[in-house]
Design brief:
It is elongated and about 55 Å long. It has a single domain, classed as lambda repressor-like DNA-binding domains (434 Repressor (Amino-terminal Domain), Orthogonal Bundle), CATH 1.10.260.40. The longest helix has 14 residues. The chain contains 7 helices and 4 strands, in the order E-E-E-H-H-H-H-H-H-H-E. Strands 1, 2, 3 and 4 form a 4-stranded mixed beta sheet that branches. By secondary structure, it is α+β, with helices and mostly antiparallel strands.
């Protein structure tokens, strides 16, 4: 048998931890590797970052910017800040304020072309007070890998 399923796997190649559950694996040249669609993993992670209830970390912000293929200058323009602010967020020298984080999350949803219902639901769930007062947590996103299997 050249396939198996692993209950959990911590995937960190996007720059931050993602807890994959129900992970399909296959044997390639004697090594067990993930049998998932990595493009879909990135898109799913981006969507989950837009919807998460805790502040975005610097690594998550960097992933978002890289996924969208935007320079620090352009990213800053989109969010109404300087590229230095973007660099400070990514290095975690400073925290993004809640209003800017809301703009970023809505920008992500717009780029992903989510439905109006999903857009409005995410907006309604966003709590700027919680985002502004909570510390950045290094809790991994949780993704069911069966949904992004090859």
């Amino acid at each position: 048998m050249n396939t198996k399923k692993k209950d959990t796997f911590i995937y960190e190649d996007l720059g931050f931890p993602i807890l994959l559950i129900n992970v399909p694996m296959r044997k390639v040249f004697g090594e067990w590797v993930l049998d998932i669609n990595f493009n879909q993993l990135q898109r799913t992670a981006l969507l989950m970052l837009a919807k998460k209830t805790t502040p975005l970390s610097g690594k998550e912000i960097r992933f978002i910017r890289h996924y969208l293929n935007i320079s620090t200058h352009k990213f800053g323009e989109i969010l109404g800040v300087t590229h230095v602010a973007v660099l400070n967020w990514e290095s975690e020298e400073k925290k993004m304020n809640a209003g800017t984080e809301l703009i970023l999350r809505l920008y992500i949803l717009n780029q992903l072309k989510v439905t109006d219902k999903e857009f409005r639901h995410t907006y309604a769930q966003f709590n700027p007070k919680i985002i502004a007062t909570r510390c950045i947590e290094n809790i991994p996103l949780e993704i069911d890998a069966e949904k992004i299997a090859c």
